[in-house]
Design a protein that fits this description.
The complex is a heterodimer of chains A (286) and B (311).
Chain A (H helix, E strand, L loop, with lengths): L7 E10 L8 E11 L4 E5 L6 H8 L7 E6 L2 E2 L9 E4 L11 H11 L4 H14 L15 H12 L6 E5 L7 H16 L3 E6 L2 H7 L2 E6 L2 E7 H5 L14 H13 L15 H10 L4
Parallel strand pairs in A: 3-8, 3-9, 6-7, 7-8
Antiparallel strand pairs in A: 1-2, 1-4, 4-5, 9-10
Chain B lengths: L15 H17 L6 H11 L14 H38 L2 H6 L5 H49 L3 H13 L4 H27 L3 H15 L2 H10 L7 H13 L8 H6 L6 H27 L4
Helix pairs in contact in B: 1-5, 2-3, 2-5, 3-5, 3-7, 3-8, 5-6, 5-7, 5-12, 7-8, 7-12, 9-10
The chains are: A alpha/beta (286), B mainly alpha (311).
Chain lengths: 286, 311
């Protein structure tokens, strides 16, 4: 069977920026190559200034590669028609404050050629999806940070793109808002939409991504399936419910009698601070 | 894959004209919601107040009416010029840097929007604002002039009856008064005011594509605006200077100056209309052609720079 056209294909991307004070240009991205297949959720992680946002901007044609190429579903990123299939949420977006939530989505929808009833239905559908129906006619100037982030996500999805690029989608958002965005990404994955995101929040990347890349000083230093990257190959985890101390002693003795095996740790697993917060504030048991 | 009905629309990505119109209407709404129309109240005060400006009289009472109408037109068209040029420069200089600063530009250019469509849309939005502003001011000016002309015609007839003027003298005075009332030449002058502001908006757009601040764009645009009033004189000096006189270097330099810098002395025709002269249609056509040329030229130059710009 022929291999599917990658949703994202970045080949040997190099991006240099001219600097005023240095003779040498600043290399923001250094020979980065990656492929994201349709339906995958890919996380690009790295410290500030490591080249994550520049890589995303090159993919969107907002900056031109110094060398190498980027393509979206096989179309060169520098071509305008490559953007029919992509939605983008920039880091800390500030949309037009004079527009309401519904007007914002209508504006972006019209830019994508949508009109009339199809657009009106899509706007309502998206406002429901991001839980902003109650604020549809409120101006964005009165939106909270989390609401802005969600309307940003809705505008990115307005033309129903097959690829979403999210730059720090949960930056500055409270745990509840962050959870909503994470749940949205899960929904998108279920619908077969490819998501390419970058974030500082490693726990969230770990929760939602199928594959991750670690970028440092412009270079992609590690890349692969998340399960493969984080699995500790020589260890096995068994989690028991309602185990008596006697049973634990028996298991410990059994392990001790097995040559080559060693018990590394026993104890009670811990929930995350996020789950504790959500349970305390919303009674969420998930 | 489970895509919504919106997905079906993907095969119709929208026309250039449609996208430009969407961006233009949005820019217009943005400017309107910034309450730029408040200046219309100032214009109303000036248009109505100019009725009462006490001008020195050098001739008989029969010319007083003409002087009043002249004052109304002079103040009103002067205010229209000031507001339209300031609005054209400041509004255009504001739009682009604001989108870059707020990163809304990223979200727009990440959609299938060619950069030329974005620039043309922003410019069209400002031009739309100018058209609406000038139309409202024109309406108010025409109303003030119409009312005042009617009153002055009545007063003229009273003077004529009191002094026993001959019919042809009455007709002559009446015609003189009507040349200063609301007429097609006045509408032509308002169109000329718009064309001059449109050129300035396109120029401000060009400067804002490489400028780093709204202030720089505004100041530079105003400097070019003032320089434009001396362009014809400067070209004349250039062509007449040197031993070679009209040499090829001087001619090419003169043409380049005329290409990049509009000759705003062409718009002195507005002053002639204030003086009561008629504006020939051919002259308005020439102004429209010059305006169109500079707007298109500056927009294409903006696109050339903006197409290569990185964000």
């Amino acid at each position: 069977m022929a291999e599917a056209t990658p949703a994202v294909e970045i080949c040997n991307l190099v991006k240099d920026f001219k600097t005023s004070f240095r003779r040498q240009p600043l290399r923001a991205v250094d020979d980065v190559s990656l492929r994201i297949l349709p339906g995958e959720v890919y996380g690009l992680i790295g410290p500030n200034g490591s080249g994550k946002s520049t890589t995303m901007k090159a993919l969107l044609g907002l900056v031109a590669p110094t060398s190498g190429r980027c393509a979206i579903f096989g179309k060169d990123s520098l071509r305008v028609d490559s953007r029919h299939e992509v939605g983008f949420l920039p880091e800390n977006p500030y949309f037009y404050k004079h527009l309401s939530g519904a007007e914002t989505l209508r504006f972006y929808g019209k830019l994508c050629g949508m009109r009339g009833r199809v657009l009106a239905e899509r706007v309502s559908e998206l406002l429901a999806l991001v839980d902003l129906e109650g604020a549809r006619d409120r101006r964005l100037g009165g939106y909270s940070k989390g609401m802005l982030q969600r309307i940003g996500l809705a505008q990115a999805m307005v033309q129903d793109p097959r690829l979403l690029i999210l730059d720090e989608p949960t930056a500055g958002v409270d745990p509840l808002g962050s959870r909503q965005i994470r749940d949205l990404i899960f929904k998108l994955r279920e619908r077969g939409i490819t998501v390419f995101l970058c974030s500082h929040l490693l726990e969230q990347v770990q929760e939602v991504c199928d594959r991750v890349g670690i970028i440092f000083q412009g270079k992609l230093v590690k890349e692969g399936r998340l399960e493969d990257l984080i699995a500790i190959e020589d260890q096995t985890e068994i989690i028991l419910r309602d185990a008596s101390p006697q049973l634990v002693d028996q298991i410990t003795a059994l392990v001790a009698s097995s040559p080559g095996a060693a018990l590394v740790r026993t104890g009670k697993p811990r929930t995350t601070l996020e789950r504790l917060f959500l349970r305390a504030t919303h009674g969420d048991e998930s | 894959m489970n895509h919504s009905p919106a997905n079906a629309e993907r095969s119709h990505p929208g026309s250039h004209g449609g996208r430009i119109l969407v961006i233009a209407l949005h820019a217009f709404t943005q400017l309107v919601r910034m309450r730029v129309f408040y200046f219309l109240a100032v214009f109303a005060v000036i248009a109505i107040g100019s009725n009462f400006f006490d001008l020195p009289q050098h001739a008989g009472p029969e010319t007083a009416g003409v002087n009043v109408l002249h004052a109304i037109k002079s103040w009103s068209l002067g205010t229209m010029t000031l507001f339209s040029v300031v609005l054209a420069i400041v509004a255009t200089a504001l739009l682009l840097p604001k989108d870059v600063e707020d990163r809304t530009l990223y979200t727009i250019l990440a959609k299938p929007v060619p950069r030329l469509d974005y620039l043309a849309g922003k410019l069209l939005g400002v031009l739309l604002l100018l058209v609406v502003s000038l139309a409202l001011m024109d309406l108010l000016l025409a109303a003030v002039l119409q009312i005042r002309t009617s009153i002055l015609l009545g007063q003229l007839m009273d003077i004529a009856n009191a002094r026993g003027w001959a019919l042809d003298e009455v007709a002559s005075q009446r015609a003189e008064l009507l040349t200063h009332g609301p007429n097609w030449s006045l509408q032509g002058a308002v169109v000329a005011v718009f064309l001059r502001a449109a050129i300035m908006a396109a120029l401000a757009l060009l400067i804002s594509t490489f400028s780093s601040s709204t202030l720089f764009t505004s100041i530079t645009s105003f400097l070019v605006y003032f320089a434009g009033h001396f362009q014809a004189d400067a070209r004349g000096v250039l062509l007449d200077s040197g031993a070679g006189g009209h040499g090829p270097v001087a001619r090419v330099t003169g043409m380049l100056v005329a290409l990049v810098l509009p000759d705003f002395q062409l718009f002195n025709v507005i002053d002639a209309v204030i003086e009561g002269q008629a504006m020939p249609l051919i002259l308005l056509g020439q102004l429209a052609a010059a305006g169109l040329f500079y707007v298109v030229f500056y927009t294409l130059a903006s696109w050339y720079i903006f197409a290569e710009k990185e964000f």
